[in-house]
Amino acid sequence: MRAAVMHGAGDVRVEDRPDPKIVQPADAVVRVVASCVCGSDLWPYAAMPATDTGRPMGHEFLGVVEETGADVTALKSGDLVVAPFTYSDNACDYCAKGLHISCRNGGRYGFDGVDGGQGEAVRVPYADGTLVKLPVAADSALLPSLLALSDVMTTGHHGAVTAGIGRGDTVLVVGDGAVGLCAVIAAQRLGAERVVLAGRHSARTDLGRRFGATDVVAERGEEGVARVHELTGGVDKVIEAVGTRQALDTALGAVLDGGTISRLGVPQYEQGPIGPALFMRNIMLTGGASPARAYIEQLLPDVLDGTIAPGLVFDRTFRLGQTPHAYRAMADRQVLKALIRP
Amino acid sequence: MRAAVMHGAGDVRVEDRPDPKIVQPADAVVRVVASCVCGSDLWPYAAMPATDTGRPMGHEFLGVVEETGADVTALKSGDLVVAPFTYSDNACDYCAKGLHISCRNGGRYGFDGVDGGQGEAVRVPYADGTLVKLPVAADSALLPSLLALSDVMTTGHHGAVTAGIGRGDTVLVVGDGAVGLCAVIAAQRLGAERVVLAGRHSARTDLGRRFGATDVVAERGEEGVARVHELTGGVDKVIEAVGTRQALDTALGAVLDGGTISRLGVPQYEQGPIGPALFMRNIMLTGGASPARAYIEQLLPDVLDGTIAPGLVFDRTFRLGQTPHAYRAMADRQVLKALIRP
């Protein structure tokens, strides 16, 4: 099969790879119908040291089950399924708590002999515990929004849930990438009255407004913080959907004492300012990597009936062979989120 | 009047200070009946640079109202009152949310012309918003436990509340100081089934057992973490009542993914490990300086009827003139918490 492999920073190639086969009895092989490039894929694209073997890329995909192992009972060949961005057994203590991201037997696509999603097919471990069957046809117009459940929409939802957003809240979302925009959807969906979106790319913030943002702050740094205070008097809840220290500093500047910052962007720093200043202000730091598997079934009805349309974050479609261009276009910010069709 | 003043590390003196008088119409002057030395007083005692003027010490006291300003309506001369460890107007937006520690008009004893509690009398700003009237006589045997509401008991309670402790929980409390011991009381009071206390001073951990600790871990560092896992398999909730990086590392090692760490000890570090490792584990960091004023009325009935007896943390009483000895005894860990009688 053909699949995208990253060999180092800026070096993504579409190559021949072995066709996936059932290895463990809980495996399924899924023929990919649609996958995409994640904002988090851009971190290695910017900085990964060159490797000899390369790393299969992609952790968001949906597709059709082609083959199942002997222990797979909930899925059969021909089922259309969406994959959360990590696999999980849905049976361990963490999965039982809804924390599939910490599954005792879970793992990441593209590592440990598991294929990436940016390819023609994927061997999915713990298929029953991982994949969610979709009640639509493989040519449904809802496919982009269903694909968004793999990561960006379930991640945005995780931010809104862990920030404790409820009816009437004022929320700041830092970042106008796909996750930030999905966090706007999620905040609005959970009843936030006012959603301030911090972002400077007008095409993206316009989509944010369509998703429910009531205000947009284009200024950055201290100016941005000042603007949030001017608009709101400070906010009780922030969803930080970037991962940089600057984004965290914006969150800390905008949040009121006693407020909550939920982080969704993988931190690009090891140490952060959690000393006496944070402590005296009683700011809660929450969020983290989303347990996407736990949320897909919750959000699915809203996607199916059109209540939410996170698929609008996909603003360009590439063929699998064009995947290197998709990376380049996203890295150059010409594309918000690239959908890839094998 | 006589009052304790810190002039630098290790240098506490009891000196003549001006008698407090009403300055603002919301002030009250309180004649101190009992005060104490806080674990947090030991940080400047260890490290404060020498000063010319010195700093009046003490932020925990109870006493009798001697005089009130024209705007004070809820208190009158002769009332026995307890003071939370900061003053607050109980009228601003933060106080309305129960976050009196962030009061827009609040402040700290010993700063900005306000007396410390380790003295004969204190001018208390915003007396109506700060002081809580006690329905007992000034010679009540409950005084130590009522004094504990000033800080250590309300702080321990804040840890249990922000950690979200409820019925059946397993909790780790890191630190066997007065705050850690009060956190044990608070965790038990909110329904925790298992309370593991990490501390190495057997007199203190014995008191912790009396307060409801079900297990004691005397080992420190990695050994301590291993012991907590051995006992519990890891915990969902940790109250960190020390403030050092080692205590935070113990908390991080003992907590399960998706768990909560509530910090009560003022961090003795500016930066902490909140990078990808914490993020991927979905660990929530909460806690902070307690809004004591918000909790005193909640906890008061349990003190009055003897349900909780946090006053047991006071293991020695000093006269005001002996305050320097009280600091020394606490710094040397001969005394858990020193009560001071003017």
UniProtKB/TrEMBL annotation, chains A, B:
Names of the cofactor(s): Zn(2+)
Swiss-Prot/TrEMBL keywords: Metal-binding, Zinc
PANTHER family (UniProt xref): DEHYDROGENASE, ZINC-CONTAINING, PUTATIVE (AFU_ORTHOLOGUE AFUA_2G02810)-RELATED, ZINC-TYPE ALCOHOL DEHYDROGENASE-LIKE
Coiled-coil regions listed: none
Gene3D superfamilies: Medium-chain alcohol dehydrogenases, catalytic domain, NAD(P)-binding Rossmann-like Domain
InterPro entries in the record: ADH-like_C, ADH-like_N, ER, GroES-like_sf, NAD(P)-bd_dom_sf
Organism domain of life: Bacteria
Record protein name field: Zinc-binding dehydrogenase
Ranges of residues in domain Enoyl reductase (ER): 8-340
